[in-house]
Amino acid sequence: MSKIGYGRVSSVGQSLYIQIERLNKIGCENIFQEKHTGTTDQRPQFQEMMRYVRSGDTLYVTKLDRLGRSTLHLTQIFDKLEKKGVDIVVLDQNIDTTTPTGKLLFNVLSSIAEFETEIRKERQLEGIRKSKERGVQFGRKPSLTEPQVEEMRSKRKSGVLIRELMSEYGLSKSSIYRLL
User: Where are the domains of the chain?
Assistant: First the structure.
């Protein structure tokens, strides 16, 4: 019967420090940690943790959304762990799946975690839409101006080889073909 910890943040710029500190404080013997999105279970340390845990172990996470983001995904994780005889304790939400109340809270809060993800996605898309309306350009600036592209097309029609265009404009073969 081991205490196993799992900590996750979504991006490289975020820190796992607080999660790991809390998991260490409660005595987790092994802590799996990674910087990866929670919307998939194709996470190396998550997969390793799922292989590692065994009957009688308890998995500790600081927040439910550290395990997964959708109700379906969290339910699938819960089912896999339950079949292995592994309990889940979520520290911030006081969820302990060894109790009926803990199982209920797990399911209710997994729905809320999914809702929060959807709201965040809607806000992000709305922000992008508003930025585009204000004329904000996303992505990399074009390598060539439109007159340069037209000049390149004209040269190609007159028989200039692709490799010569690559050299002249400093572009890859695929970029040349895309622009032609």
Answer: 3-130, 146-179
3-class SS string, the chain = CCEEEEEEECCCCCCCHHHHHHHHHCCCCEEEEEECCCCCCCCHHHHHHHHHCCCCCEEEECCHHHCCCCHHHHHHHHHHHHHCCCEEEECCCCEECCCHHHHHHHHHHHHHHHHHHHHHHHHHHHHHHHHHHCCCCCCCCCCCCHHHHHHHHHHHHCCCCHHHHHHHHCCCHHHHHHHC
Question: Which residues participate in catalysis according to the annotation?
Answer: 10
Model confidence over 157-167: pLDDT tens digits? 999 999 998 99
pTM of full prediction above 0.90 = no
Domain 3-130: CATH superfamily is Resolvase, N-terminal catalytic domain (3.40.50.1390)
